[in-house]
Amino acid sequence: MTTESTKNNEELNEELSAEQLADDIVKEAEEQVEEQHEHAHEVISAEQEKINELELALATAQSTVADQKDSVIRAKAEVDNIRRRAAQDVEKARKFALEKFAGEMLTSVDNLERALQNIDKEDESNKGIIEGVELTLQGLITSLDKFGVKAVDPQDQPFNPELHQAMSMQEVPGVAPNTVIAVMQKGYELNGRLIRPAMVMVSKAAPSVDATA
After folding, report:
1. How many Cα atoms are found within 13 Å in the side-chain-facing hemisphere of 91?
2. What are the residues facing 151 on neighbouring strands?
3. What is the pLDDT of residues 138-181, one digit of tens each?
4. Which GO BP terms, alphabetically (predicted)?
5. Would you say 140 and 109 are in contact if contact means Cβ atoms under 8 Å apart?
6. Of 3-7, 103-107, 122-126, where does mean pLDDT reach its minimum?
7. DSSP SS3 for 195
8. Could you tell me which CATH number the domain at 148-206 has?
9. Disulfide engineering: 112 pairs with which of 83, 94, 137, 194, CB 3.0-4.6 Å?
10. 164-171, strands of its sheet edge to edge
């Protein structure tokens, strides 16, 4: 083989080696890029998984808070209902106690009023008795008034079936029909609510006259 051929072969081999080296470098670079890409993908996946876990934990915490809030609201509503029912029960008990108290006292008031109506006021010897009965009666009425018990005395007023109980009816000249002409027993209200109707006598219209008679 000539010297020139040998030289050409050596140059060719050197070019092939250079190309091979370049290919190897490119391939290695590509492999490194691929590895970095895979690593980056793994990092992103890990971060995304962490984000998903945090979002799930947040959603769970928010749901728990919402449930607890609803429980607190329901508990508060139940407590309010219990307090309201207790207050109503206390009020009913108070009213019942007052009605019973008032009923007992009204019997004494009625008896004292009857005593004053029937006693001979012209007799001087009864003066002290009359004053004592009047003072006692006034004391009872004042005490009842403090507890919201007030008399219903409809003398000369229109008859009201919601407050009065008609015991009899009578025609009275010059008096409009359906007027209370006498109060046989006073009625009483407790805090605006009727606890005893007034027993009354009511006027009635005169019978119509048949003009053809």
Report:
1. 7
2. 188
3. 998 998 888 888 888 899 999 999 999 999 998 888 888 999 99
4. protein folding
5. yes
6. 3-7
7. strand
8. 2.30.22.10
9. 137
10. 164-171, 198-204, 180-185
How far is 28 from 33, CA to CA, in rounded Å?
9
Cα(141)–Cα(139) distance, integer angstroms: 6
On whether the CB atoms of residues 111 and 143 are closer than 8 A, the answer is no
The structure tokens 């607190």 sit at 72
**Using CA atoms, how far apart are residues 104 and 106, in angstroms rounded to an integer?**
6
DSSP assignment of 76-138, as one string?
A: HHHHHHHHHHHHHHHHHHHHHHHHHHHHHHHHHHHHHHHHHHHS-TT-GGGHHHHHHHHHHHH
Task: Identify the DSSP state of 34.
Answer: H
Show me where the domains of the chain are located: 148-206
DSSP 8-state class, residue 186: -
Residue 168 DSSP SS3: strand
Tokens 């050197």, residue?
Answer: 14
**Sequence-separated contacts (24+) of 114-123 with Cβ below 8 Å:** none
Residue 133: which of 147, 120, 149, 116 has the closest Cα? 116
Does pTM top 0.70 for this prediction?
no
What amino acid occupies position 67? D
The amino acid occupying position 35 is E
Class of residue 80 by CB neighbours under 10 A (exposed 0-12, middle 13-18, buried 19+): exposed
Residue 78 to residues 54, 65, 68, 90: CA-CA distances in angstroms? Answer: 36, 20, 15, 18
Distance CA 68, CA 78 (A): 15
